[in-house]
## 1
Amino acid sequence: MQLEPSLLRLESGDLIRRLHETDPAFLFKQSLVQDTVRESLLHHERKRLHRLVGQALEELYPERRVELASLLCQHFSAGGDDDKALEYAALAGDAAARINANTEAVAHYTRAIRVAEQPGRPGALVQELYLKRGRALELGNDFAAALENYDALTELAFRRNDRHMELAALMAKGTIRSIPTTAYDMDLASVLNDNALDLARQLGDKSAEATILWNRMLMESRVGTSFYTALAYGEEALRIARENNLTERIAYLLNDISPLLVFKGQAELGERYNLEARDMWIEFQNLPMLTSNLGYAVMIHLAAGKYDLAIQESQQALRISREIDNKWNEAFSQAWVGEAYLERGDIAAAERVMLEAIALGKEYFPPTLVMTRSDLARLYTELGFPERGAQLANQALEVASAKFLAIRSVAIGALADASLEMGILEPVRKMLPEKIELTDFIGNPLFGIDVARSKIRLQLFDHDYQGALTETSKLLEFLFKNSIRQMQPNLLLLRARALSSLDRVPEAADDLYLALDIAQAMAAQWTLWQIFAALSRLEARRGNLELAADFRAHTQTLIASIAERTPEEYRARLRARAAREL
């Protein structure tokens, strides 16, 4: 390639130098010279040279187009070649998005949109760029800016009378409003999703219909009203996606249906769906969705009592989330796993991950301000600090009442437990339902079971042993039917207390030994020490003093192990509680 006369003159005048002997690239020796030379060129000459540079880079490095996309965009933009500038701005945005450089992706897509909005360019291209910019803003945790982006797309759709573009904007806004972010709004989500579904069906757009049903599933399940309504939406969306070979939508649906199947008694199918979606996210190199998938795996493993796996998946999700600076998933990966650390007897780790999730909650993933804060409240109560537990539970209840009404029961359960521990009964009686209906935990099991357990504890405190027996039996029937193992030993403990108090000691013993088998299989050390203590009391009552002593020794050994992994400020009360149980 022959050098431009201008370059030859600059090189001979010792104003520029080659980067490499074989590489036709140069550097100015001084920035002042560079500015002077640039300004001395006529405007049309500068444009011509920029185009030539862009063309030269394309010709010399065809295999590096993606790598050089940002630079190529600059040259073609300065050279007045809008088509090339648009092509490389979009390519640079895609390249940045692939490595989760979301700020850079937004900047590139914005540059591309400016060109793409010019008259005569296809609406589908403009729509695609807006959606990509919106997704980059979401992944950068700027949901307000993402909504503004989709509002701008809506306005553009109205100006162009483009109903497909209008639908795309409605769906994108519906997704943001349906998931538990700082922009979550169930009422708005419902309106957006309903309007979008009507429009999708008018247009005969099956891909859009599957997406909107997915939105509805998210709205109903994540902090919504009914797991089973959500599951019906998800299964219908998955049917449509499979019939129409919508590969990416299938991945999203498998991913987000998987935890719901656990509460339908299909835990193995849920785990299979989760792993199938994971393989797809790895194939697509979609790290944000991979971390979301691992977060759902934590929930699935917790319900199955697979605590080591829950911790393992959480740690992997946390590592990836921090690598890509995704704060939403960083909080999500730690939102529930504290329960696994607690059952492993690692109180320090349980407290640490809960506090980290709560700290991220306000700005990125608000459900931790209710769910995780309630878990931490229960932890403090069980360690012998009910006042601290009540304070946190009240904070959780305040957030739930303001934003997440469907999960108020979780905070109410935590507050009731702390109040009972402090002997404050009247407020507990007012806050808990008079009767627990089966639908309270079937309609929304993840949230309803907590308040059901608290109601049972109140019944035991009030010596309503028959009532407690009835309620625990209903709840255990649901847990066993649906293979939700995590809560089984704790509920069996409560039912054994009711049976023992009714002088039905052999049945109480059956429940305790069943609880022991399940807890040992799960290596649930926190629940195990309580089962050992209960068995020690029961066997002493039956006159089996040697066996009672063995169980007492097991309790003390476990408490000693747990105390070693408990912050020093909590150890004395932990040991005092264990002594009372024995």
Note: The chain has a mean pLDDT of 89.
## 2
Amino acid sequence: MLEKLKTSRSKEHRLEELSPFELKDELISLAGESSKVCSLSMLNAGRGNPNWTAIPPREAFFELGAFAVEEARRARTTEVGLAGIPVKKGLAARFEKFLKPGLLKQVWEYGLKQHKLDPDTWALELVEGVLGDQYPVPVRMLAGCERLVHDYLVHEMCGGDAAAHAHGHAQTGTPRGRYDLFAVEGGTAAMCYLFDSLVENGLLKHGDHIALGTPIFTPYLEIPELDKYGLKVTYVKGSAVDKDGNQTFQYPDTELDKLGDTRIKAFFIVNPSNPTSVMISPESRKYLVKVVKSLNPHLMILTDDVYGTFVPGFVSLMADLPANTLCVYSFSKYFGCTGWRLGVVALHEHNIYDEMLSALPQKEKDRQAKKYANLTLYPERLKFIDRLVADSRDVALNHTAGLSTPQQIQMMLFAAFSLFDKQGSYKKACIDLLQTRYKLMWEGLEWPVAADPNRAAYYCEIDIAQWAIKTHGKEFFEWMQKNFEPVDVVFRLAEEEAVVLLNGGGFAGPEWSVRVSLANLNEEDYTRIGKFLSKVLNEYVNSYKNR
């Protein structure tokens, strides 16, 4: 029998009930102790904070900041640092004189030529935005910034990437009309706001049925269970396997058929998924569209597409089902800016949410009209996206809603950087980096790498049960189940090798699986992690043979 860990099996069983992100603290503590004893450096592949940054958009931000500071001094200056408010008159001319070739100049010219923005107004938005000297107006998103971020989302989320054609992915094109955007404090804020607003506006009620595409980021599992929501959940499981019996984590048609049940009011999905890091295949996307349009046309869809940029030719459900879909996008991972807290909610101007608000019972309409009466003379006409903004500040503080203007400026510069990269050089560098790390980890494991065009490779989900049965037989896996808890693997890695991984079961994935973040360590570290994991798994095999 394997030597028992310091953490008892009974404690492991209790710890399994924690979110993986809370459990990681126990693992980090174990790994820290192990690194002291064994002189190993701790490898924390638990949380997916990228170890890269996009520099040109940051350079442009500080370049703009330097100009803005001089404009503030131009308006008023004192020895104690008290400056004024930038003056709009002649601002565009002074800005053009200041600009030099680079991203900031491209942004300036794009706003003027592509969107016909008034020069002085556009210059003032940029300058006051980076200074943060005014409240965000409009509260939903600054007008010029919204235009560029909108174009970025259409480019990246709706199959507008030229590389997509080379990889043979289905293209849908841009739906007619525009998306309304709400800039928010990262994807997590978007999640909280959306759950609240759907309930506040009677589109989801306590006890309603929703569906979750699993495995999935743990907050989506936990939020519906909160008392204030009390939602009943149907799991749409990514349980498909390929011809060799390997998990693809795609949704079989039989699972997607569940969404045809009109009792299910909403479907929440992360695409590409977390923790499995694969996008919905074009075939499954097409089938999902068919199910929704033919059987459940008022299904509300919330898709979290933060990892979409890591798959060539990615197409979001916001393109396939624009009327049904609320898209949440975060800039944090692609541009290495988790500390900036930059996210956006996108909703097509023609959508089922506004339709369903119009169809609510009069009593509910009256309740909502009273709630929003201080915002508009016609509260019944208030669009869902604007209700979302108001609800984010408990309505009464709607006038101070909105993401801080410096954050919006940086968001727009990130978007523009990608939008103007016509060769896709930055995207290719990000994708190549993750795919290299993925291969190195599997080489360390000494397992074959299955090709998968839908793989984002931001994370890697390793199904230990599948490995155990395929390589050593069903009896071996039954022995593992009888003698150990599923989290035993991550505890053993932490204690013996100072490696921190998360348990896949906490994401509603296979109980006997682990999630590895491929974003936050150096390439050689993933070879080490693969070898360490292989060593731990072989310890189980040896113990089984010698039992």
Note: DSSP finds 22 helices and twelve strands in the chain.
## 3
Amino acid sequence: MNKKTRTLGEVFEFAVEKFPDRLALKKGDTEYTYTQLKKRVVYLKNHLLKLGLKKGDKFAVFGENRPEWAIGYLAIVRAGLVVVPVDRMLSQAEILHILRNSEAKGVIASENYIDKIEDVKPELSDFKHVILMDTIKDMEVAKEVPVGDIDPDSLAVLIFTSGTTGTSKAVMLSHNNIISNLECVDKIIEINEKDTLVSIIPMHHTFESTAGFILPLFKGAAIYYPASLKPKDLVATMKEANVSCLIAVPLLFEKFLAAVHRKVDAASIPKKIMFNAISSIGSVFKFLRKPLFAKVRYEMGLGNLRVACAGGAALTEKVARGLKLFAIPIIQGYGLTETAPAISVSPLEKPKIASVGIVLPSIEVKIHKPEKDGIGEIIVRGPNIMLGYYKNQAATDEVIKDGWLYTGDLGHLDEDGYLYISGRKKSLIVTQSGKNIYPEELEEKLIKSQWVKEVLVVPRIDAKTKKESVCALIFPDYELLEEYSISSETTLKKEDVEVIFKDVVREVNAELPAYKKITQFEVREEEFPKTTTQKIKRHMFLERGIKV
């Protein structure tokens, strides 16, 4: 990391010096070189200060992924203000809650979502300024408005996160929290000025903000933004960018594999035979995977892909192995918004599929109160640990103790220093005999079935006996069931589907000790509600009875 880079508003300065005319940001016909990026950031910074905003004031950014979102974020922090990234998909009540509780003075907003801002604006007394993203392109405020020194340890970003727990808290991250995390990630994942990325995860999310936005700009890479996340637009942008680094949630990689297999299923019999033959060869001779599946990768816009990183949710072993078969160099990382966000990342040269990688330099990880199997709560210490929760000292004291952040995640470290996640402390099921059951372990086994698209394992408490049993909530792959119904020329009734999943559960149970066995299951007709990064909102299913 450049020694001159002390605050977030300066992260792109190194690239401006070294690669002034290199492309930085692009969406459709709108593009910015590094020189143009700096010009727009400085003009917007000057404009914000001319509005009378003072150092430490909060200012929101709101909209879809696009270059002006990035410029808005950088200008806000360069002005010494605190940026409040807001999820564009939130409800009116949630947006109001964030803008009110953050005490935001205004927002840089996309024209596509301005109605949501106008709806809540009358209820916000201190909310005075609305800057449309399209106006950033032509803004001319060349007269420099001085900022003064910005303390690297001061609050830079305020992120409201509910995640999968349903409780909204605002995480306070300093300039140094994020910059120190960049330094750590930069030592494990090499990104340089020749790289191109396609921005997929919403930019308000800390994983995308740090790894898919700020880090590439520091390194002089180019970031492309697709017109939408529809497969056609996404593939077109990947081909245009000749993408070399891809950062995405596991769901995107899962959809990639599903798309490949749909194409194969629709192909002629000779092509199917050829694909299966190639797959068999690739599974045995790993060095042949890259040439054998070159055409598949090219058609998906991944012909030049050097590294793919999954984050924001757990990558299943089934998806990881599927990607490796197609010679897609997949790694995964682990972290929290509270850790700015990365804690561990898989080394590209030696990843372990079941692991979330090795702990990053300058960060310490310990397993708190491990059980006999070595599993305990993951606690973290380092310069990336948040300042705390905004105006919530009680919640801060609950998770930060003696400098250690208690993540609430359960896991263990192996002898090589690789970290493994077992599940969430709050979702742990404890049997009457005192044995621990990790729902995520059972979910990983169930999801291997071709018939299971999504699954949650939750406890069910019998109203009379008060005994706790293990239940699986299953959302089937209905497309696959329909294909099976057509090919077998039979109409699958509800009872037939139940039989299929009884067999799936029976096969999984056969591998498990008695206390872990799944005793009941429910087949769902709808997908599970999820967070922005496609994590299932588990809390919604722990707080109600289960229909079986």
Note: The radius of gyration is 24 Å.
## 4
Amino acid sequence: MSSQVFLVASGDLRLSANQKCWPAQSCMEEALTAAVRSFGREVHRAHPFDPEKKHGFIDSQRYGIDVFRQIPRESPVIVAEAVWQYSHHVLAGLYHHKGPILTVANWSGEWPGLVGMLNLNACLTKAGIQYDSLWSEQFRDEYFLHRLEMWLEGKRVQHDLSHVQRFDSDQISGRPQMVGKRVAAELISEKAVLGIFDEGCMGMYNAIVPDELLHPMGIFKERLSQSALYAAMKRVSAAEAQSIREWLNKKGMKFRTGPNGATDLTDDQILDQCRMYIAALRIADDFGCAAIGIQYQQGLKDLTPASDLVEGLLNNADRPPVAENGNGRILYDGRALPHFNEVDECAGIDALITNRIWNELNLDPETTLHDLRYGEQYNGHFVWVLEISGAAPPNHFIGGYRGAVSERQPPMYFPLGGGTLKGISKPGEIVWSRIFVESNKLKADLGRATVVELPREEVERRWASTTPQWPIMNAVLHGVSRDQLMARHKSNHIQVAYGRDAGSADEAMLAKAVAFRELGIEVYLCGCELTADGARTGLHNAVPAP
């Protein structure tokens, strides 16, 4: 391998985010560069710090293409990430690069790099681009340095993937087999429509599922425009919007408001979010959607407050009633309308099928996708911080609506504000999953986890190190270590749903695996084993309360 290593850093599209996050990126690059140089290699940063923009990120696809034109095609390239990044900024350049590629993230919940790197990894996987991946807190630990040296010597980086087992639905019998097959057959027969409010959010190439992979499962896209959603919001009266707010007030939900819309959550912002909630349900009903995805930030961020409060409400079975225009019919009455945050179509497929499996098993059908935000050891367990921007359903929180609070979204992401749907996830047994695209096939990883209740001061500390306005889930994954998950996971997102207890969560996971497999998805169980008669082993290693 060449003695010179080229370093690039993909960033956000939003100038405010790039400026705010640049100090963390600069610090990370300094430590990473020192590690590379310790092995006698020279690091060349392929694009400079921009004194006018006040950051050194690749902040557009065009700029990324221009940067890679100056990098020798056979040279080793490190993509260094301490921030959330838009993968398409560098995907075009990496697509035709012939040299070794290493994606690297810092281990920090602050902006966060590991979330950005996981998204980039999933995009590279879908694109069929070969890469290796590493992560570290200080870039001085043996795990990182040993594998970095391997990569610098031209070898592939090796991680332990022994937790992954290919799932064979023929090993499963009884209720999980019956329910999984029935749900899959009904989906193929009856068909389902995913409402897509503009595709390709935040450069997430991995979150776009080709139509030809969807249609055999009986799933079809209805491509909708966020401009139509905005127009429909404008047709919602103030009285209708206020009725949603009053319903939430009666449920005990809290809103932390203030007078300055630039930095505070205001009543007007909340009412606009209530309008979006009503408009989204009406459009979904008009087009017969079984689930919908709103693009989250880009586009709508310049017109209206954030969609996160809306998304969390849609994902909850118990939510404010909305009537069809012109009559009293309640839309999706008593049901969640699964919402896949950031128009992540992989999560949309998952949420749709999970909702149907869980309803068949008489389990609470609420789902959400979280970011794999961060994690630390606590009392002998590695406890993940799963965190999303407010799209979590209240039924996942301690206290439900009474345990929920709405706080203003950070101004660097949301100039027009809007409230989150924030809470602490209740302790319990969950199924986690991720559908992804690899080798032009749909694949899925599934596993089990326990949501643990940490002391409030520990939760607050974790919130302070991430984004305190967003809902949080503290989870211990069964049979999967931190580094195993990072090495395998093909997304920044992870889908979660609760069982009543360990047994019902096990059963739901297996029924879901059967449904996925019947629909043609290649399924892998992570941290779980199946014996010949279908019994689970290694599934509930006891997880004491931390």
Note: Confidence is low (pLDDT under 50) at residues 537-542.
